[in-house]
Description:
Layout: H1 2-21, H2 44-55, E1 60-61, E2 64-65, H3 74-79, H4 96-101, H5 119-130, E3 157-162, E4 168-173, E5 176-181, E6 186-190, E7 214-217, E8 223-228, E9 231-236, E10 242-246, E11 253-258, E12 264-269, E13 277-282, E14 288-292, E15 300-305, E16 311-316, E17 320-325, E18 331-336, E19 342-347, E20 353-358, E21 363-367, E22 372-377, E23 385-390, E24 396-401, E25 406-410, E26 416-420, E27 427-432, E28 438-443, E29 448-452, E30 457-462
Helix pairs in contact: 2-5
The structure holds heme C.
Heme C is lined by residues 55-56, 58-60, 66-67, 69, 80-83, 86, 96-97, 100-101, 107, 109-111, 114, 117.
Amino acid sequence: MRSLLTLALLAVLANVAFADEIKRRPGEDEIKVVALTRKDPVVYEKDIEPILLNKCSVCHSGNVKEGRFDVSSYEEMIKGGKHGKSVEAGKSEQSLLYKLARKMQKPFMPPRSEEPLTPQELATIKLWIDQGAKPPTGMREKTKVIVQQPSADVHPVRGVAISPDKTLVIAARGNQIHVYDAKEGKYLRSLIDPKLVGVDGKPIKAAHISLVESLAYSPDGKTIASGSFQEVTLWDAASGAVKQKLTGFSERVVALAYSKDGKYLATGGGAPTEDGEIKLFEGATGKLVVDIKNGHSDTVFGVCFSPDGTKLATCGADKFVKTFEVPSGKFIKAFEGHTHHVLGVGWKNDGKMLASGGADNVVKIWDFEKGEQVRTINNAHTKQVTMLVFVGTTTQFATCSGDKQVRFWNVDNGGNTRNLQGNNDFLYALAVSSDGTLAAVGGEEGVVRLYNATNGQVLKTLQPPEVK
Ligand code: HEC
């Protein structure tokens, strides 16, 4: 009896000591454990998935998988991240996901900048784990997701574009779009959608409610297209006013491209592990031309028109590069060889070759007619290749990567012709003017570097505007 008591005492002491070790800032208290009154079993897709989508997926899905932890599917979520299993079925108190979300253990999840779980949400997750962390029942109902606004200090650059006349550079930062004078490197204005309101009914001063994931300039320079969660906004480039909103997307729109003549606008996206989404719109009217169903079996990360505008190349998380006829959307052929997500694709000026890059750190060059791989550039980068763009009508294309590098390549021989130096963090976005003289690069660091792309000199560093 006495030894039992001692043990219990020791356990209490150990707990206290453990709790003392965790440094908490104001507002970072452990979340209260509340009792749920429900009697019915917790259903993953109804009760758990919406919480993860709402509070975790910004940092744990798609291109961004912090701690290598992915909540976009049940399987990935259970598997856990770099510290292994996130959930011990039946044992919530021993489950990493629960411990971090309850703020019993560091790193607290979500991080301080974000909305924490409510005690109700936490209790639901706890009950689900204690009931055996059951997988989805398969009777999946599409849940309506309420989008959380990113917090003010999330400001990686996920999209950049250069106006066709090279006078302006635009950057997508968080849910903002910033416009800069290219010559002076000066911030000019933000694109604001005056109709945006948050869940609380208050107006939001931003371009989109959620993160801006993609940007494109129409070839005539009159329209800017931006993609975000379930929408694309077309802006009047001169006035900054909203011209039109394109809707009907199931998830984030992460890729946008105009055909060279501006006749068509293509979008790519879709929910992770579900069918990728590819849509084709009329550039001038925003009218949907075709919704290419079942093009990819997972998120589409890149879209690019052939130079003559008769075909569309796409790439996605299913490791494929595919091509489709424009405007019918009819499938032409698929290119297989990447061993991980393909994040960028481009089309050579003569329409005969394609280049693609992906999360396997590799760049591949394909012969379109033969449907074959011509070349693999192994270790093109030491981290994922996040974007790939051809340089106007030249034989060059450029890639940017998580390894902080921007590299130029010759499509005919695979040679690395030039690199742009000076970036300090993971890169997501790259644009090169059609004459190949100006390049804009952005990423996790939050700044955009403008380069003289012919000699690699940094011309300007575009800083985020002062937040008023
Ligand atoms: C704003 C970004 C952000 C949000 C939102 C976020 N996380 Fe994280 N998460 C991170 C980062 C960054 C790490 C890596 C931390 C580290 O390694 O120190 C991480 C790591 C984790 C890990 C550890 C993975 C491993 O094995 O190392 C788990 C589990 C996790 N998060 C769960 C969650 C859950 C659950 C939510 C939602 C309730 C959430 N996170 C929301 C940024 C985020």
